[in-house]
Amino acid sequence: MLYSCNYVKKAFLKSSLREKWNDCALWRLLWPLIAEQVLSVTIGVVDTVMVMSVGESAVSGVSIVDAVNMLLIIAFSALATGGSVVVSQFIGRRDEIRARLSAKQLMYVSAAVSLLIMIFTLVSRRSLLRLIYGRISVEVMSAAEIYFLLSALSYPSLALYNTAASLFRSIGNSRVPMLVALMVNMMNVGGNALFVFGFKLGVAGAGIATLASRTAAALVLLIMLVTDKKSSISLSGIFRVRLNVPTIKNILRVGIPSGLESSMFQIGKVLVSRIFTTFGTAAIAANAVSGAINSFTFMPGNGFGVAVLTIAGQCAGAKDFESAKYLTGKLMKLAYATVAGFSLIILLTRESIISLFGLSPEAALIAKNFLLIHCIMSPLSWPSSFTLPNALRATGDVRYCMVVSIASMWIVRVSFAYLFAYAFHMGPIGAWIAMVSDWCVRAVFFIIRWRNGIWQTKTVIQD
Question: Quick check: is 9 in a domain?
């Protein structure tokens, strides 16, 4: 009788998941995710244009700090990923009590880790910049140090915002994070206009605007989660701190491999970025501007990646692997189509877009070549390199993703970048060729893994 009841329950969960994630439900999840990515990237470009008005040294300083920032904030970004997978799987199981417990534990861990990283950065920021980038001009280093200080102060707010947003997405509510992102971006642009142009604070103005907008975003989402007592991700009672070690272990089971993967990836990117510093300010500025522009290509893929994490996680929690395959396949087709569309638009308009940044002729030419490589290769390999692995992570296959990503990053991207740039005398363009080669290698391994079905044997939640 017990077996029969369990069988009926599983059958109900599977059929309801298929019905839940119909085309209308997918659209309601996807459009805010893509809109949020559009907002984020658009504001990133606007920020770059605003800072560029201060000079190439300023935008170069901000660019190299952003690369280090990504390395340092990987820890709580990975925790947000781990937590959202655990919460999604509990929601797939229809276990709201443990979903809420997991949400609270995730917040505690994210807050603690972000505070530790902030303190470490404030104490050692100058040494970090000099260790990573070595000899760069005095003007670039000065801008970088100012921006790094203000960025570090915003780490706790960014961690709590990312975590809260991931919780909303884990239940399929992507609209709230999108609306808050709209508020944040408007604040950021307004702050830049006020502090950079109005008060003439330059790079410091950009940092202050970022700090203020991130703090406001974190507060809004946290208040919503704490006051909503009916939600399956409610944080009501979070200030009565009670740590639950088994739940934290479930989160770390996904978070630690994801963090190691992302950390090694970011370290590799920072090492590759040193190549641009050796070829002068024009190469640094061209890389920064090209990175901002090509982010538009990634917008749909990033949005689909978040959707895959939520949907595949819920399917895995319900042990409905057929729905996971079907829905992931549908999202991947959409990801390829939209990445191809954005790449084509950027390819056809890249000269006009680059002209908006006021680059020197040398930097503009370098940026044009960077974007040519990027727009050709993105539709061929990027979705399978970065969107598809989220489906594997959502089901618990995080170690495979970690090994493939780290190996490809260091063997292909980092090694080939230095080989192409210096041994083959290709200069900074060699680093971009190495980057797209890395995408191709990752895509092959992740496609093979998804098709062989080994991910169906993995487990995230251990009762």
Answer: no
